[in-house]
Amino acid sequence: MVNRLIKKAVDACTTWASHRAIDLGLKHGQRKYVRFVVVGTGRSGSNFLRGLLNAHPAALALGEIFREHGRIGWDIRGYPRSRKVMTLFERQPARFIEQVVYRRYPGGLNAVGFKLFYHHARDESWAPVWDYLKDDKDIRVIHLKRKNLLKVHLSQCKADRTGRWINTRGVREATEPIELDHDGCLAMFEETRSDEEACDRLFAEHELLGMSYEDLTTDEAGQIVRVQTFLGLPSMPVKPSTYKQSSLPLIRSISNYEDLRRRFAGTPWEGYFED
């Protein structure tokens, strides 16, 4: 644990020093890389995909940058948080993306991007984020979906309850089954499918790679080659840095599973009850 913390601190200092050297003209920087964004919803494998991308030496996948006001969601240590940067982040988010996210980086990077969930940057002050991404057709879009939205909703509810959002140890964590509200499930299903369709329309003129969590986890090697090719990265095997948090079937994870299956029978959502 201590060695890992020391490594993180050293990496953060190295990253910060590299950025400062480029900003001061002491080190060459470049913008000749593919810019991309990963869009989707939480609990759909975006951390898994991001880990696979960051395992490639020529890729940089930043976190949920616009997750909340007052804090930049870099999810990587060593990235700028100065008062000037924070002012851009809060007041001029499009310029923040252009100048800070898609900044000059050291040579060797072929692709740089970040995560953006459907509900991110939806207030008036951050509306320019979506406009900027829509208008710049050179930005490539990876649209990550999960076919079974019941599993998305279950995973979200479990994470809300336990506070465990990421599994970096590879250990499956046992949890007690939980009860899901029918109306809450229905609202989530309808809203997410609507968000997916709206996102596909918004980026219809972009280079867009659609992929599913299910395909990514059952054919990891094949899907990551698709992603690397899409981003102009040299193809190479990579290892994940996060793991599934649970492998229990739905019937053992949801205490009122049979009641929900009965109530969703004959609806567009009945296929989610696959056990």
How would the blueprint of this fold be written?
Layout: H1 2-23, E1 34-40, H2 46-54, E2 59-64, H3 83-91, H4 93-101, E3 111-117, H5 127-135, E4 140-145, H6 149-162, H7 182-202, E5 208-212, H8 213-218, H9 220-230, H10 250-253, H11 257-264
Parallel strand pairs: 1-3, 1-4, 2-3, 4-5
Helix pairs in contact: 3-4
In brief:
The protein has 275 residues and is of the alpha/beta class.
Could you explain how this protein is built, in words?
The chain has one domain (29-272): 3-Layer(aba) Sandwich (Rossmann fold), CATH 3.40.50. It contains 11 helices and 5 strands; from the N terminus they run αβαβααβαβααβαααα. The protein has helices spanning 2-23, 46-54, 83-91, 93-101, 127-135, 149-162, 182-202, 213-218, 220-230, 250-253, 257-264, and strands at 34-40, 59-64, 111-117, 140-145, 208-212. Strands 2-3-1-4-5 form a 5-stranded parallel β-sheet, sandwiched between helices. Helix 3 packs across helix 4 (93-101). The longest helix is centred in the first third of the chain and has 22 residues, at 2-23. It is globular.
